[in-house]
Amino acid sequence: MINSKHENQNPVQTGFQSANYPGISGKTVVITGSANGIGLAMANSFARQGARLLLVDINDKGLAEAKQELEKTHEGIDVEIRSASVIDDAAIESVFAYCEERFGSVDILLNNAGISINKPSLELTPDEWRHGINVNLNSVFVCAQAAALRMVKQGSGVIINTSSMYGIVAAPHRTAYCAAKAGIVALTKSLAVEWGSYGIRMNAIGPGYTRTPLVDELGKTGRLDLEKLSNRTPLGRLGEPQEMAELALFLASDSAAFVTGHILVADGGWTANGYM
Ligand SMILES: NC(=O)c1ccc[n+]([C@@H]2O[C@H](COP(=O)([O-])OP(=O)(O)OC[C@H]3O[C@@H](n4cnc5c(N)ncnc54)[C@H](O)[C@@H]3O)[C@@H](O)[C@H]2O)c1
Fold first, then answer.
1. Is the CB of 164 under 6 A from ligand 1?
2. Do residues 15 and 237 lie in contact, with contact meaning Cβ atoms separated by under 8 Å?
3. What is the 3-state secondary structure of the chain?
4. Would you tell me which of 112, 159, 187, 209 could form a disulfide with 33, CB atoms 3.0–4.6 Å apart?
5. End-to-end CA distance of the chain
6. Which atom, in ligand 1's list, is nearest to the CA of 207?
7. Residue 138 within a domain
8. Would 103 be classed as within a structural domain?
9. How far apart are the CA of 110 and the centre of ligand 1, in A?
10. What is the predicted pLDDT for the residue at 103?
11. Ligand 1: which of 57, 92, 163 to mutate, most ligand atoms within 8 Å of CB?
């Protein structure tokens, strides 16, 4: 029978399988916001390919646990952790200086740290607006520039920024978030154009709602209606963190050697859907 409400009652299940990218092995990867969620999934995906990792986050306990988990799961992995906020310019500079000193290069940067800001815009204070733009957009430039200064010397490098489907379409109560994520789209294209001649590729991923522990928790406490979000999604479910990590892996790999300035959206069809 046709589902007249256009709600997806047969969610397309993830037959997800990670691909192999041998060229990633031995590469140095800096991942911001990697103590949890999508960033941690990225760490696992790149570790599986034999990359050397430098994880950056403000959550010290989460970082230590992530390192422990990665070392347990991926035998012989080389992983370092650094406690730093992406909005602290000096701390970020020292992260990249450390990376260069410890690993000898900065090959790949995954600019992933971000916060959600969910508040009616008539109540959003100027400081809250500035903080949202600072964490979600300004930091992306600062980290990208610190990495690129090393990549220019190397003659190569890849930077992947985590935008969002909310950098493409909007939602209420998320002005600073949407503006920052749309800013990442323009920044990604602009720097890809400017830095291409140095051998640096820059792309962005645009996740839709993704089933991180935080999103699951918001669902359990009723602050996000996960069923409603799934029904709004043509594929009938939320994304999985490892599906977002896989996009970054592809974009970082030689398979994407001619891809730069691209925004790779994975949202189960959300942004294509103009119906509800
Ligand atoms: N989960 C989703 O549904 C979704 C959808 C679209 C885009 N995104 C984006 O994906 C990225 C990761 O999100 P997530 O869902 O995994 O979130 P998460 O909260 O699970 O993880 C974000 C990580 O960033 C860290 N972080 C926050 N502020 C920081 C700072 N100032 N400096 C360094 N680290 C900081 C947090 O400690 C945390 O470990 C974010 O940029 C987010 O906007 C997430």
1. yes
2. no
3. CCCCCCCCCCCCCCCCCCCCCHHHCCCEEEEECCCCHHHHHHHHHHHHCCCEEEEEECCHHHHHHHHHHHHHHCCCCCEEEEECCCCCHHHHHHHHHHHHHHHCCCCEEEECCCCCCCCCCCCCCHHHHHHHHHHHHHHHHHHHHHHHHHHHHHCCEEEEEECCHHHCCCCCCCHHHHHHHHHHHHHHHHHHHHHHHHCEEEEEEEECCECCHHHHHHHHCCCCCHHHHHHHCCCCCCECHHHHHHHHHHHHCHHHCCCCCCEEEECCCHHHCCCC
4. 112
5. 20
6. 6
7. yes
8. yes
9. 12
10. 98
11. 57
pLDDT at 4 over 50: no
CA distance 69 to 53: 13
* The pLDDT value given to residue 1: 44
For the annotated catalytic residues, the residue numbers are 177
Structural domain boundaries enclosing 151: 22-210+241-272
**Segment 207-239, tens digit of pLDDT:** 999 999 989 998 999 889 999 999 999 999 999
> Among candidates 62, 69, 56, which has minimal Cα distance to 109?
56
Is there a domain that residue 226 lies in?
A: no
Q: Is 41 in the pocket of ligand 1 (CB under 6 A)?
A: no
Structure confidence by residue, pLDDT tens digits, 62-110 = 999 999 999 999 999 999 999 999 999 999 999 999 999 999 999 999 9
Residue with the nearest Cα to atom 20 of ligand 1?
A: 37
Q: Which two tokens stand for residue 72?
A: 């347990």
Instruction: Look up the CATH number of the domain holding residue 38.
Output: 3.40.50.720
* Gyration radius (Cα) of the chain, Å: 18
Domain total for the chain?
Answer: 1
CA of 215 to the centre of ligand 1 (A): 11
